[in-house]
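Notes from hallway chat w/ T.B., transcribed later so I don't forget. T.B. wanted the structure written out for a chain they're using in a teaching module, and asked if we could keep both sequence and structure tokens in one place. Agreed to drop them here.
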Amino acid sequence: MPYVRGRPGVAAAPSLRMSGRLRRLVIVLGDQLDLEAAAFDGFDATCDAVWMAEVTEEATHVWSSKPRIALFLAAMRHFAQALRARGRTVHYTLIDDPGNRASLGAELSRALAALDPTELRMTAPGDWHVLQQLRQAAAAAGLLLHIDPDRHFFTTVAEFAAHARGRKALRLEIFYREARRRHGVLMDGDQPAGGRWNFDADNRRSFGADGPSGLQPPRSFAPDALTAAVLQQVERLFPGHPGGLGHFDWPVTREQALLALDDFIDQRLAGFGRWQDALWPEQPWLWHSRLSAALNLKLLGAREVVERAEQAWRAGRAPLAAVEGFVRQILGWREYVRGIYWIRMPHYAQGNALGATQDLPGFFWTGQTELACLADALRQTLDRGYAHHIQRLMVIGLFTLLLGVDPAQVHRWYLAVYVDAVEWVELPNTLGMSQYADGGVMASKPYIASGQYIERMSSGSHCRSCRFDPKRRSGADACPYTVLYWDFVQRHRQALAANPRTSMQLRNLERIEASEREAIRAQADAWRRRMAAGA
């Protein structure tokens, strides 16, 4: 049997063994779909080749949703076409190829035995465990795996490590300002544009009772024949996995990703800052960019996205506050979490600073819950593989944090369901920012709030359709977020007392009568028992 079997849209490459030994084999993973990646430097089509593999382990080591599986497979297959259009030989294993060994390490071992390259290269990956698999496979074949830096990012891991060295705490704001200065982004000489580093005071408003208006739906991309075949295959191979494919319209090529970028800059960037934290039922996109998946697959470069946003401000097409808020997410937060991931792994993944042990509620896989805001965010996540950052942090993540869910289970769920989830970005956001499981490495305090925060940021839209009252701390109609919030403050009183940013919450707790505090504790325990029982 030949190593690579031909399929429509992913044709088999001619064997290089016929004309002599293969010189360089370049590994390309599903989140490295960049034709200009560093691993391609010096590529010689006459003696080098590319290796790509679809493996079931990447869909099953966490119970990946159908939208996430489909996006990776569709984008990978289109990228293989783009490589071949450039005259590059691609050895590509499809997920249902006979002989597929189901894991990246095992598939690479099979490829190395068949192709016998003299050199093995790849761009730095986004998953620590995948890197270990590939290194082991290379070592077993007697090859050194050469890792090239990922030029997609502004900051290298070594540069971030230098930034972190000697600091008692790592904080986004310090890193972000350094990055702005180093790369000359939104700067007027040596000063920040507009005289301020941070425009949060101008951003993060709610919509008001009438809700969002003037929304332009983001550009969508109907599946072509290759993507349609992937959707059918995912339904056939992973029928029991969560989520649906009826809304699948993600960009899966470089050309589509650039159109999506144009659409955001032209239609929604101007309103992004003001409403970046606002919520509204059954409105998944609002003014958000919908670019995270294309960025994390490397169909778009971080630099070009930041440059386009800054150009829009300098051309008078978007206010500085909106552009700064967007740039902060990419040049700041995205680079910051990547740095923390690589300097802290593998032990970072074991963090559980708050000692949380509750199991993840089963309705996280169905969206069937009576909490209106949570049901909306979960159903949207499962249907589309997407939720914006406040839904992820302050609706879904807040609930698991307050409930006391084991952070490893929360991490696996986030990695499974979102189309933009790659471990380097998902793990620190989940364990560090959302669940405070790292004890403050990433964030200076736990991001906790009662149901009144959700009421405020959704202008009451979720709460009006919900039987629970966010203002009530106890009783049959009390919002579970509010009950669990006050219970969290009581349970973690000692840790919160040691943090100046949370001392006010403790003072507010002391104003509650002891009898009501006990009622809150009992009701929170009842909620945990109910969640554990599958309700």
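Follow-up for T.B.: The radius of gyration is 24 Å. Might be a good example for the class.
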